[in-house]
Specification:
This protein is 39% helix and 16% strand. By secondary structure, the protein is of the alpha/beta class.
């Protein structure tokens, strides 16, 4: 990716021709043209579960990277070749080193491109239209009544002082990419240059000469959207002071008091519109509105690529005997399905979702992504309920039974032996309609009324979720005679009550 990045930079930023680039780099003209014209940087996900590059070298990569990094201080002719790296590894680890020379050479070539291929950024003397700065801030918020300690991505345009932000539950690579794409698509283009700090989601290493070793995913992202990423000096976040100010401005104006909403995705769309409306105010220094100045920013934007980039992360997980797996350093547990117990499953991870995929790359279930340092569990019960319905009489002897909520276990114990399978299928159907929480609420009501038959369970669910049909008033014929109202005389009743001594005046 680093070599491709450099080729495209020579063409788009330095204005060199394909012939000049071919002569300078030694790459074939057709290859250069292919990289320059490439618009789709999506990675193809194959059905086979690809392993990490050069996995056999994992125990030795620290040594290799250290030697190659040290080479930056040496003259070119005294730097490590792949052969010399192979020799040193063989000498150091002896019988514990069993990798081939070809494997070492492949990894050395890849690492050299990353270590030696980056160019240092530079500080702008003035803010030009279209240039942007990016940074994250921290803020709490309530989504559907639950409190989250969130992060929000800010992208500001110093020339106009326009800013946009998107709210997330974390500050990972998926949040960064999805937030940038949302803003790019909203403003209708891509800033030609974006300033960042040295966050680990982008920068893996700051080199002594001021260069940066960037993550492969970020390089792919920046190539796809064709912007130049430049970086502040270490511990010099003030160099992108405009976005630092925007972080505070956005928090004070729209996240205080702690904001509440039902769905994060919908709230983020509203935030973009809110930022547009805020741009109608006067610029703090220039004699124009922020919106008027931002028009110059938009005119300097590069076109969006023809195809959006899939910025999801794909990993392979090993499920346990219950068809569940762990992420987040073992703290976050997710379900798949009983039929995927003790299996390897491909999982798609976005900023907001964790999605196990089947062999056709179709979702098995969907989970909201868990965040935080505490132990948490996300269960999608439909596959488990469906499985239990096939063998209801063996329910208590399955590993699934202890996982069930207590109220559901009590309810199933009260149901007839022959009805358990049908009841479980109904609960599965209710789960599909209104989620497991909705089905569980119906079960709680059924327990209260001792309703253990199928019809009662369905009727209770319909009543809770207002699915009882409202009938229109019955139309009456026009020839119905009007009846005379009769007023009853209750005096005779009063007399009898008085005689019996029951009426007290």
């Amino acid at each position: 990716m680093t070599e491709v990045h450099d080729l495209r930079k020579l063409y788009y930023d330095e204005g060199k021709s394909i012939t000049e680039i071919s002569k300078e780099t030694g790459r074939d003209r057709k290859t250069v043209r292919l990289y320059l014209e490439k618009e789709d940087w999506n990675e193809i996900q194959t059905s086979s579960l690809a392993e990490v590059e050069f996995p056999k070298l994992d125990p030795f990569k620290v040594d290799i990277d250290a030697w190659l990094t040290e080479d930056k201080k040496a003259k070119r002719k005294q730097r490590h070749t792949a052969k010399r790296v192979y020799q040193r590894l063989a000498e150091k680890y002896r019988e514990n080193f069993t990798c081939s020379y070809r494997t070492v050479a492949g990894y050395v070539a890849k690492s050299k491109k990353e270590i030696f291929g980056q160019r240092a950024g530079y500080l702008p003397l003035e803010h030009i239209p279209g240039e942007a700065q990016g940074d994250f801030g921290e803020a709490e918020y309530y989504e559907n009544g639950r409190l989250y300690s969130g992060k929000y991505l800010n992208l500001s345009f110093p020339y106009s002082n326009q800013g946009y932000f998107q709210l997330f539950k974390g500050e990972n690579q998926e949040c960064l990419f999805e937030g940038l794409i949302s803003i790019f698509e909203h403003i209708g283009g891509v800033p030609p240059r974006i300033w960042f700090d040295n966050t680990k989601t982008i920068v893996t290493k700051v080199l002594k000469d001021g260069g940066r070793t960037l993550t492969g995913d970020f390089l792919r992202f920046s190539e796809h959207y064709r912007f130049e990423a430049v970086f502040c000096n270490v511990e010099a976040g003030h160099e992108k002071g405009n976005v630092e100010g925007k972080v505070g401005y956005h928090r004070r104006n729209w996240l205080v008091p702690v904001t509440r909403f039902e769905r994060l995705a919908e709230f983020n769309q509203e935030l973009l519109k809110t930022c547009d409306a805020d741009a109608e105010r006067e610029h703090y220094r220039k004699d124009a509105t922020i919106a008027e100045l931002h028009a110059a920013d938009k005119a300097a934007l590069m076109a969006l690529p023809a195809m959006p980039l899939d910025v999801s992360k794909y990993i392979t997980v090993k499920t346990n005997g219950y068809g569940r797996f762990y992420l987040g350093n073992g703290l976050h547990e997710y379900s798949v399905s009983p039929q995927y117990a003790n299996s390897r499953v491909l999982v798609k991870i976005t900023a907001g979702e964790v999605i196990p995929l089947d062999k056709s790359h179709q979702p098995i279930v969907r989970h909201q992504r868990l965040y935080g340092d505490s132990r948490q569990q996300s269960m999608q019960w439909l596959p488990y309920l469906t499985q239990l319905s096939h063998s209801p009489n063996a329910l208590k002897y399955t590993g699934i039974y202890p996982m069930l909520p207590e109220s559901l276990k009590v309810y199933l114990a009260k149901c007839g032996r022959s009805d358990k399978g049908k009841i479980l299928r109904v609960i599965a159907a209710l789960t599909e309609k209104n989620g497991f929480e909705g089905a569980l609420e119906t079960v709680d009501h059924a327990l209260k009324y001792a309703a253990t038959d199928i019809d009662s369970l369905i009727n209770l669910h319909n009543r809770i979720y207002s699915q009882v049909p409202e009938l229109a008033p019955m139309p009456l014929a026009g020839n119905i005679p009007e009846l005379m109202r009769v007023t009853p005389n209750l005096a005779a009743y009063d007399a009898r009550l008085a005689k019996a001594g029951e009426l007290k005046c």
